[in-house]
Amino acid sequence: MHVIVVGAGIIGLTTAWYLRRLVAGVTVIDPAPARGASHAAAGMLAPAAEVVWGQTSLYPLLRTAAEMHPEFAAEVAGAADAELGLTDTGTLVCAGDRADLQALRELRDAQTGAGFSTELITGTRARELEPSLSPSVAGAVRIPEDQSIDPRRVTSALLSVFASELISQHVSGLVREGGATVGVELADGRRMSADQVVLAAGSAANTIAGAPQLPVREVWGDVLRLRAPAERTPLLRGTVRGLVNGRSVYVVARPDGQLVLGASSREDGRSGTDAGAVHRLLSDGQRLVPGILDCEITEITTRARPGSPDDLPLVGRIDDGCVVSTGYFRHGILLAPLGGRVGAEIAIGRRPDWLPPGALDSVSPQRFETPADLPVLSTT
Ligand SMILES: Cc1cc2nc3c(=O)[nH]c(=O)nc-3n(C[C@H](O)[C@H](O)[C@H](O)COP(=O)(O)OP(=O)(O)OC[C@H]3O[C@@H](n4cnc5c(N)ncnc54)[C@H](O)[C@@H]3O)c2cc1C
Prior knowledge:
Elements: E1 2-6, H1 10-21, E2 25-29, H2 37-40, E3 44-45, H3 58-80, E4 91-95, H4 98-113, E5 119-122, H5 123-129, E6 139-143, E7 147-148, H6 151-161, E8 166-167, E9 171-177, E10 180-186, E11 191-193, E12 196-199, E13 217-227, E14 239-244, E15 247-253, E16 258-262, H7 275-288, E17 296-307, E18 314-319, E19 322-326, H8 332-347, H9 359-362
Parallel strand pairs: 1-2, 1-12, 2-8, 4-14, 12-19
Antiparallel strand pairs: 3-7, 4-6, 5-6, 9-10, 10-11, 13-16, 13-17, 14-15, 15-16, 18-19
The chain binds flavin-adenine dinucleotide.
């Protein structure tokens, strides 16, 4: 079986990884490999810290994906002879002041309700764990099991594994015969046939001719990369997230000393960096970690997260020759091993029965549509 994967972001590359393990031949096509949302991502693998009220279908996916990461990362690191920056130093979700502490307590109730074990600690205890935290931090939720990874190292390792299967081209459309996808058309007019096509083009999934219109929304995010002065490195031991005047902010500490400060969230359609968002991130970040302002800004990146109406991914078959895998929103790095394996298994006709009950239906691309709008086919 030969499968074409459209898109070499974390999802397309992880799908290719699992396809190869399922003994399928793979070609990955992308004009700008790993330069989309995956290039911006902070790399938090933080299922509990990601809990938001009312997203009950998402939690089992996040939890299962987090469990898959250590083995997935070790195997990719081994295959590419690379270091992926996987850490398990945990997360502190901090309250900027006493009003934020009340919101944090409510968030912790949601985390507990979702079955995650977290600990509410005082500001003093939080500063014992992270001495760079501001004296004004009023309390924190400690999540010791949270991990993080460097998404750029993961995609670059996977790109090295698939170097000879990668075509740097734009896919302009799906080639369809008798209602089924049989290949893709490239921007230079060439056609390539395949037994299966996996559409993993992130927020650009709807720009490919012949693909059904998916309810994908672009949620833009601005994120900064910083480096602390040598005498203050490491500024942080693990990930610090927080609420400042009700706004979310995070600082992810990489093992190599880099800090990632993020992220804004806007659906204004503007692909350029938003000055106000950068100002707010620096201002809120320094409320939690004042040393941020002594750092050097090494990069500011703006990318669109591929969102869906209910914030769950869209993974499943859309015709006999095509599987879609997008809509990973703010969880694509965390969900990559799960989404990659599910997409690969569906493409080769295997049912991913290792998923938590109901999970496959919760990510079905047909869940928003009536059968007349989008063909509802078997998910295997
Ligand atoms: C600021 C920010 C911070 C984030 N932080 C985290 C985090 O801490 N943890 C987490 O889990 N997630 C995080 N995310 C979310 C995560 O980055 C995304 O969910 C994930 O990267 C989506 O991966 P993807 O492969 O679907 O999309 P992308 O990475 O966007 O990849 C899509 C690829 O498709 C290619 N493509 C598009 N059109 C075509 C075409 N016509 N032909 C061929 N190729 C095409 C593009 O060039 C691109 O390389 C963050 C996102 C942002 C923006």
